[in-house]
Amino acid sequence: MNSELRQDLVSGDWIVIAPSRAKRPDQFIKLHKIKRIKTPVKGCPFEDLQKSGHHPPILKFKNSHDWEAVVVENKYPAFTHINVCASPEKRGPYSVMEGIGHHNLVITRDHYKNFPKLSKQNADLVFKAFVDYYKILANDYCLAYVSIFHNWGLKAGASIYHPHYQIIALPIVPPDVEHSLEGSNNYYKKNKKCVHCVMLEWELKEKKRIVYENKSAVVLAPFVMREPFELRIFPKKHFSYFEDTPSAVMRDIVFALQKALQKMEKRLHDPDYNFFIHTSPLRDKNKYKHYHWHIEILPKFNISAGFEQGTGIEITTVDPDEAAKFLR
Amino acid sequence: MNSELRQDLVSGDWIVIAPSRAKRPDQFIKLHKIKRIKTPVKGCPFEDLQKSGHHPPILKFKNSHDWEAVVVENKYPAFTHINVCASPEKRGPYSVMEGIGHHNLVITRDHYKNFPKLSKQNADLVFKAFVDYYKILANDYCLAYVSIFHNWGLKAGASIYHPHYQIIALPIVPPDVEHSLEGSNNYYKKNKKCVHCVMLEWELKEKKRIVYENKSAVVLAPFVMREPFELRIFPKKHFSYFEDTPSAVMRDIVFALQKALQKMEKRLHDPDYNFFIHTSPLRDKNKYKHYHWHIEILPKFNISAGFEQGTGIEITTVDPDEAAKFLR
């Protein structure tokens, strides 16, 4: 069988599914099995936050006792907050802007419990931390976008083992998000429908790439899969704004995310991965009603080589239908 | 010092230079020093091409004796050639296209001589192979774009040690190239100038990020550097089409590429890297006169984590000015 080019409905980008270069999922996994390095509790900078020189937590979340999740400032921030807004200035022909924004961490209590291992209650707390802090950031009129993500494992860029999540608030709407918003808007203008709703309707009818679903959420292997075993989690109903999602829906999404990661951990032998939230920008809240927020999980299997870097076309060697079947 | 957002002149994308998270170049390099795995000549599939089941070479290039470089079909192609053109068809709401195209390799004779170690004469031959085969591909009216690239090292996606280069011909213009062509065209319409020429003029005046130059070519660390120690090689004069570059200019470009890679090998301790050519599409040759073809080299240091994946914003922890000074 020949390879196939597939075009993303939102970004318009193309990827290649190349099954002739493919390994069957089980062989693929065997090739990529690497033992995770767990650093011990002793010496972990996220065990005693005060002792490791962190500022006092901005937000604390507890269940029965003590804290289960906190929001703290990142000690080595990529963006820092000062009392002015960033504005573009010229340097030669270029535009530059001071890196004004926020860079915070959500740290969970248990050194050994990553997101899929958290109790349902504590997993909900993590998302409560995301939403609560997101809403605080929304009041800062210097900010344009908040990116929430999780790095799991060295290959995914996590330099500290202890599970933690990052919230970066930016003075610009990031290029990839801008690109998706444009794609979603163009589709809406042309078809009077949300592009993600159309895609979900088709996927729920086809059933081939659905990995898990509950009342309000669905986990699927995208038809245009950039990375082997990539998964996406969508609210079934159309919500544009992460922060305004009803809490019953959010609980179903959190549970679906846990399920997706549990399946990955079990079937793919605990791979390194990133997950991140794609939502609408903070400002002009009426402008992005066409957009459908969601979560993307990208396990770290592919190496981005010269072709991917030079063209922006990812070559995926695992068929999305088989990936979903393998994970289900 | 705070971090700084910088906008690419061509793509409009933003990156972050975060010196507060940075290591000085020499410390940075110490951290990333890894010994290269050289597989032996015995068992190398590129030593005796016939014996390892390759089709006879499409093109052979020799200097004094035997071949020094050949163009051969990739045994495991991502794109395959049949006697029809690829055309988009619908699958559900998606567009798909058969992976019709070409996937070829340029293999050089010496198992241990990567591009920076080749004699000047043999390095020129590699680019002669690129140009000659490019011109053959240009006659196939099914094709839209030819991507030429090199993967060096496992981390850069090279599964075989023996130096080889890849030529992939595609039925579409790749999204990243399309994006750059648009940016270049928009700049031209607005300013009546080539965006790359403007940038080169500024860089040659500032001199801070120039790593090497000769009569026709310049090597620089881009002001908007996506990867630590990224380098770009430009013809000083404006040429839109790789394949139509005068051979004296091409020789200077090849020499500049060798210089750039020699400096990387020496100063950065032989890192893994990709290089690729960004040029204008095969068709509508009058449409892209605004574009300035060039070569980009991306060493493999960064890990693309949740932030980069979720936003498209790269965070670079080495200052481009310092990178250039360190390499010069």
The second-level CATH architecture of chain A is 2-Layer Sandwich
Kindly state the mean pLDDT of chain A as a whole number? 93
Query: Quick one: overall form of chain A?
Result: globular
Largest protein-protein interface: A-B, 77 and 77 residues
How many structural domains can be distinguished in the coordinates of chain A?
1
**Biggest sheet features of chain A:** 10 strands, antiparallel
Looking at CATH, the homologous superfamily of chain A is HIT-like
Q: Supply the helix-strand structural class of chain A.
A: alpha+beta
Quaternary organization: homodimer
The rounded Rg of chain A comes to: 20 Å
Counted beta strands of chain A: 15
Low confidence ranges of chain A: none
Domain DUF4921 (chains A, B): 101-322
GO biological process, one term (chains A, B): galactose metabolic process
Organism (chains A, B): Candidatus Wolfebacteria bacterium CG02_land_8_20_14_3_00_37_12
InterPro entries (chains A, B): ADP-glucose_phosphorylase, DUF4921, GalP_UDPtransf1, HIT-like_sf
